[in-house]
Write a structure and sequence with these properties.
By secondary structure, the chain is α+β, with helices and mostly antiparallel strands. 24% of the residues lie in helices and 16% in strands. It has one helix and two strands, in the order ββα. It has one helix at 37-48, and strands at residues 14-16, 23-27. A hairpin with a 6-residue loop joins strand 1 (14-16) and strand 2. The longest helix is centred in the last third of the chain and has 12 residues, at 37-48. The relative contact order is 0.19. Bound molecules: zinc ion. Zinc ion (ZN) binds next to helix 1.
Length: 51
């Protein structure tokens, strides 16, 4: 058994945020828009505000 630490085991390069170019939590191979936690939060606020 080779159970490495916790659930978050990142290996390889991470994609950069499409907005601010900060490193995200997504792998570079991630298909789609990658946002860093900060921008993701902002986007969530924006989309939450529909009116
Ligand atoms: Zn960002």
């Amino acid at each position: 058994m080779d159970d490495t630490a916790s659930a978050t085991s990142h290996s390889g390069p991470l994609a950069e945020c499409v907005l601010c170019r900060e490193p995200t939590e997504y792998p570079e191979s991630y298909k789609g828009v990658t946002l860093c936690p900060v921008c993701e939060w902002h986007e969530a606020q924006r989309t939450a505000c529909s009116g």
